[in-house]
Amino acid sequence: MEERIDLLKKHKKGLLRIVFSRTGVVILLLLAAVALFLVSQIFFAGLINGIMGGVSIFNIIIIIFLVNTDMDSSAKITWIVVIMLTSVFGALFYLYTNTNNGGKKVKKLCSEMIEKHKSDITQDSDTFTSLQSKSTPTAQLVKYLSNSGAFPVTRHNRVTYYPLGEDKYADMLTELKKAEKFIFMEYFIVDEGRMWGSILHILAEKAKQGVDVRVMYDGTCAISLLPYNYPEMLSKLGIKCKMFSPIKPFVSTHYNYRDHRKILVIDGKVGFNGGVNLADEYINDIVRFGHWKDTAIRVQGKAVDNMTLMFLNMWCLDEKESDHSQFLNMPDCPVFEDEKGYVIPYGDSPLDRDKVGEKVYMDILDRAERYVHIMTPYLILDDELLTALKFSAERGVDTKLILPGIPDKKAVYSLAKTYFRTLMDSGVEIYLYTPGFVHAKMFVSDDIKAVVGTINLDYRSLYHHFECGTYLYDVDSISDIKRDFEQTLSKCERVTYESIKKESFFTKLQGRVMRLFAPLL
Hints:
Strands 1, 6, 11, 12, 13, 14, 16, 17, 18 and 19 form a ten-stranded mixed sheet that branches. Strands 2-10-8-7-3-4-5 form a seven-stranded mixed sheet, sandwiched between helices. The chain is an alpha/beta fold. It is built from 21 helices and 19 strands. The protein is 45% helix and 18% strand. Residues 1-20 and 250-254 have low confidence and may be disordered.
């Protein structure tokens, strides 16, 4: 077994991620626009007026069509800027991405999968009635989540909150060793090192014992973290493995939809969710951007079915037949009668018009009475979320944001800073985690509501990624989440108007320019 696992050595690839991103496409469009201008000047000088006139009419038609779509207003502005800068190339690229043939196929598969298995787990009426008697607004949110993708609310679960990735990692290893029937893992990033290596040893041993072990990771890992044939390599260890949406640059329009979820389900009894990926920086075993602050939760009980269903729906997208029943409604699933509160693991898909992740966050902001405390690594806001944050503070709600003190992406960080003054003018308090990088995606409000998951406050998470989170209502561990926020806050430096003034001219300029392209980042 040791020799077989040793064959899975690290392969770093030198391809640049930017080549596969929308940002990379925009750079190519700008270069193409410059080339077109030069060629037209050299070879078609006599026809230049007619050519440019035709191009202008074409661009105007596309912009009129764009303005009348239901796209977010910030995204409309970005596309108009791209078309203005890149002329016909930008307009054609907009048409290409919105034709979205690859995305339409995946969308059809996703909707069919959700509809087919919507009845596999159902809402317990007594649980819903109990919640409704305690909080009608939360019951309304539950109805919304149930309608959006079969995410029923459950009670009598045991929830454990992890303030650091290394805390989750230790319990992951313990729970994995207990697996008897199946292990399902769905992660955005898998990178070889101590964390993944120790997990892989357990997975291989469990597969050898007959446990159904499945691992799914996002296709971006094949750019620089894992060899392209990694699924085949894991299969030699008895582990079923899939790479979600392998990246093929400029071939399909759906490569932009990434699987950003982090889900681990064991025997249908234990589920993990949160921001922690399977790489050594997430457990501070290596240092990349100072101390890595992340959060996660473990759920034990009926709520785990929601995570199992999310995993299976993604796993089976490319399979003609799918039977989830053997993995759901496990008869030996624990029931913790002494645990109060309600738990709803839920997912979000970029392939529908329903921004579930954002709506849950906005529901918390809009209904908060005393406080909303938030940790997020990125801040790239659409108009709706920006308004919700400002209005929360303007109503007198104590609204605090913790962001990284050391960023992982400096250009994106400069963009985030462009929102600081606007938010502060409304009373939002912003803090920077001075020891390092905050990767946590966490909301806590009024000692009674919280979300821990994978959903950042940026366009990537809210519009372009498959995401997941766990909504907690009146659960004991919410006090642990609040305590962690307060302890983290003690290590932060508050952003002031004076500190904003001290930012370099280049940082301010870069942020303003980047904001033009925010929906593409």
